[in-house]
Design a protein that fits this description.
This protein is of the alpha/beta class. The chain has three domains: 14-88, Arc Repressor Mutant, subunit A (Orthogonal Bundle); 92-215 and 394-410, ATPase, nucleotide binding domain (Nucleotidyltransferase, domain 5); 223-388, ATPase, nucleotide binding domain (Nucleotidyltransferase, domain 5, 2-Layer Sandwich), CATH 3.30.420.40. The chain has 13 helices and 17 strands. The strands form five sheets. The protein has a five-stranded mixed sheet with strand order 5-4-3-6-10. The protein has a five-stranded mixed sheet with strand order 13-12-11-16-17, with helices on both faces. It has a three-stranded antiparallel sheet with strand order 7-8-9, with no helix packed on it. It starts with 13 loop residues before the first helix and ends in a 12-residue tail after the last helix. It binds zinc ion (ZN). Zinc ion (ZN) binds next to helix 7.
């Protein structure tokens, strides 16, 4: 086998090797600026271990291709003024598109993880929720949106995220129960209407990748993101890569044991007091309705019902808040803590990042942390490593786009088409 330069495949020339090394160093610079920015060149040198002249050269190339820009110089009390650099969030952008049960959301996301503009497409306007209907609706709306919002920015591709069981590497939605999808080749359905390259990722893993580059995972190489909401799932990040395993089936935490309280609900699937039966938003809201803590109004969606429960628990004015509501939220936090302790003992991550409905009442997070500390063999010290996710409501569009932005961060010159397989100079 030979490549197009007529050399045996797998061999790289000295010129290519130098380019790859330059790209690796440029990526290290970008990552340092993302994690610590805005930062001066001297600080970048310190964080990356690169020499000052290398940092000067690399930052110049990165500024030339609009990945970095300079802020106004800062005058220190002594010494030379420092010029802070930051990642340019408004030149290189990716489209992020998330397909949920009730709506599709999409938008433009800058290389610094900022959401520039976004839009929502409610699914109730569609005659059915088939893959063809949803992707057709999205394709049409995205074209109109880009014509209006792209505004001269450079679009490097589209990231699509969806819940359920997703094998991103094979481009397949293996199963999405609530939408009734099985074995759907989503990239093929979207390829003609969305700007490529197109990257598919499962929602919880996409959220973990957003936290990895722009949020609670910036300073650590390994963590577990635990999503506790209507949806339950975990994403395991090891050496800054999401672990998937065979069939991309990793991270299913629904049936981890959350309580052995004989009064607690039993799961129809596993028969135990698992997270699914006793600690999801759905389970919590159902119990609150059953006890009459919140009205049993079917018109309230799960999110609204959860907000009502949190509002009932919160002390208002001279009142102390509904004790039953507080007890439900505290019990849920403890149950999640028990399951998180199992995850901590099994994986021993540097951090656990919590996401989803569990964060709407963060006054109970200490309850959760204490329970993890009490159950884990690492003891109470582990409590400090349990942190909330950084991104709130706008996370779905951002996290959908991250797998595409990640390619620019890790291989900036290749992703922008600036690294060619050039023939080596004659020696
Ligand atoms: Zn179960």
């Amino acid at each position: 086998m030979q490549n197009r330069n007529g050399r045996p495949q797998g061999l790289v020339t000295a010129g290519q090797r130098a380019q790859l090394m330059r790209q690796g160093n440029a990526s290290a610079v970008l990552r340092a600026v993302l994690a610590h920015g805005p930062v001066s060149r001297a600080e970048i040198a310190r964080h990356t271990g690169l020499s000052a002249p290398s940092v000067t050269k690399l930052t110049a190339s990165l500024m030339e291709v609009e990945l970095l820009n300079e802020l106004a110089p800062v005058e220190p009390t002594q010494g030379r003024p420092r010029v802070p650099l930051r990642v340019d969030g408004d030149r290189i952008v990716a489209l992020g598109l998330h397909i949920g049960l009730l709506r599709t959301t999409f938008g433009l996301v800058g290389l610094d993880g900022s959401v520039i503009a976004e839009r929502e497409l409610p699914h109730h306007e569609l005659p059915d929720l088939s893959p063809a209907r949803i992707t057709e609706q999205a394709g049409r709306a995205v074209r109109a949106f880009l014509a209006e919002k792209l505004d001269g920015r450079r679009l490097v591709g589209t990231g699509v995220s969806i819940g359920g069981w997703v094998d991103g590497a094979r481009g397949r939605v293996v199963e999405h129960g609530p939408l009734g999808w099985r074995d759907v080749n989503l990239p093929a359905l979207l390829a003609d209407s969305l700007p490529g390259p197109l990257v598919l990722e499962q929602t919880v893993r996409a959220i973990a990748r957003a936290e990895l580059w722009f949020g609670a995972g910036r300073e650590v190489d390994d963590f577990v993101l635990v999503m506790i909401g209507n949806v339950l799932g975990a994403a395991i990040v090891v050496d800054r890569t999401v672990h998937r395993g065979p069939g991309a089936a990793a991270g299913a935490i629904e049936h981890l044991l959350a309580t052995d309280d004989p009064e607690a609900a039993r799961c129809p699937v596993c028969g135990a007091g698992c997270l699914n039966a006793t600690a999801s938003d759905t389970a919590l809201v159902a119990r609150a309705r059953e006890l009459g803590v919140i009205p049993d109004d079917p018109a309230d969606g799960a999110a609204l019902a959860l907000e009502r429960l949190v509002a009932a628990a919160r002390p208002a004015g001279s009142g102390t808040g509904d004790e039953q509501a507080q007890d439900l939220l505290r019990t849920r936090a403890r149950r999640v803590g028990r399951a998180v302790a199992t995850i901590v003992d099994l994986i021993n991550p540097s951090r656990v990042v919590l996401a989803g409905g569990i964060l709407v009442a963060d006054e109970y997070l200490d309850e959760l942390r204490t329970e993890v500390g009490r159950r884990s063999h690492r003891g109470l010290a582990v409590a400090d490593d349990i942190v909330p996710a950084v991104f709130g409501a706008r996370t779905l569009v951002r996290s959908s786009a991250v797998p595409v932005l990640e390619q620019v961060i890790t291989e900036p010159f290749s992703a922008l088409g600036l690294l060619q397989d050039r023939p080596a100079k004659p020696v």
